């Protein structure tokens, strides 16, 4: 490969990488792993699991398969927390949960 | 339009994508025989109640036939082939879904769930998504006008309502109109379900796949968990209405949670003994009941599929709460192939 072609290929690669990083933010952001799914990472089907919601309430259950992914499915009553909500919005100080 | 889901459908990339979009209180009366919290319940013959197709609302049903079928364990059986019209027979309209502006209040907006909690998808909620998700890339509205970016056309809805959302549809509130897929008022996309006429208990729990969870008595599909990772990864919100339902091109209007009796979402009556009411059948033929009883209490003896037995109802499931992106955890019975 001569130096001119090599430079072209490097420019093309840089342009492609730049496009993916700038134009398509989804490619740079793939870790929206919600709590019910995150609770079953590195676990097996039927393993015990638990997660908390934005209000501190506790959900306990087991890891179950949904479309090839493991998700924590609660089978015990929700354990209510007395702590203030942590996932409300700044613009609306009242909790938006229904 | 009728859509019937079989395993082979998911070898078809278009159907696979569509289904992916779609791919969510007192302990039951006396005699509960649940076997604990981590395994499925051993179901006696007396607790194994046959499917009662009369529970489906008349206006929801297109047709019901009894057919021969093969269950997931390979055994031959008899199933009901139930075609439902896909529009909730207990309602006259769908939505609202996305808020029009950052000033839109809860009465004119739908819902969204996160980590078990169902939130009002108000304009204020949309305006604060960057804070909510701790990610400054969220910008679902025009900062100058306050208008929320909404998929207002069929082309936009179909572009954004898929796992691989084009970059130009990142940061959209995604909603589709049922009129794109149905010419008649109060009609949706009809779906056919194959449900064992009498449930056949499994030796081990069966996984819920892209074929969904079951069918509501009002004619709406009970879908598997929404793929929130893909949805949020594209900075989109696949807005639900108050009944935790939304529309996609393939399943039509479908539920990802049960929210009966909240706001405008129709309630289901409690049973005479205070047990929560049933609202649908799972694909294995066991009925699904409300999460809580008339006193607001949940059952304490649910198995891993969220089922247990009592003398009145036999084996049955209880749905998870409206924000949990699930109805049940797995199938205790065999499903039809």
Keywords for this structure?
heterodimer, A: 2 domains, 3-stranded antiparallel β-sheet, globular, B: 337 residues, mainly beta, 9% helix, disordered N terminus, DUF3551 domain-containing protein (chain A), signal (chain A), YHYH protein (chain B)
Categorize the overall geometry of chain A.
Answer: globular
The secondary structure category of chain B is mainly beta
Q: Tell me, rounded to a whole number, the average pLDDT of chain A.
A: 69
Q: Report on the biggest sheet of chain B.
A: 8 strands, mixed
How many domains of chain B? The number is: 1
Give the fraction of residues assigned to helices of chain A.
10-25%
Protein name (chain A): DUF3551 domain-containing protein
Keywords (chain A): Signal
Protein name (chain B): YHYH protein
Pfam family, one (chain B): YHYH
Polypeptide structure, described:
The complex is a heterodimer of chains A (98) and B (337). Chain A is built from 2 helices and 3 strands; from the N terminus they run H-H-E-E-E. Chain A has 98 residues and is α+β, with helices and mostly antiparallel strands. Chain A folds into 2 domains: 1-29; 31-82, no CATH class. A 3-stranded antiparallel beta sheet of chain A has the order 1-2-3. In chain A, strand 2 and strand 3 form a beta hairpin. Chain B is mainly β and 337 residues long. In chain B, a hairpin with a 4-residue loop joins strand 14 (278-282) and strand 15 (287-289). Chain B is globular, with a radius of gyration of 20 Å. At the A-B interface, helix 2, strand 1, strand 2 and strand 3 of A face strand 5, helix 2 and helix 5 of B.
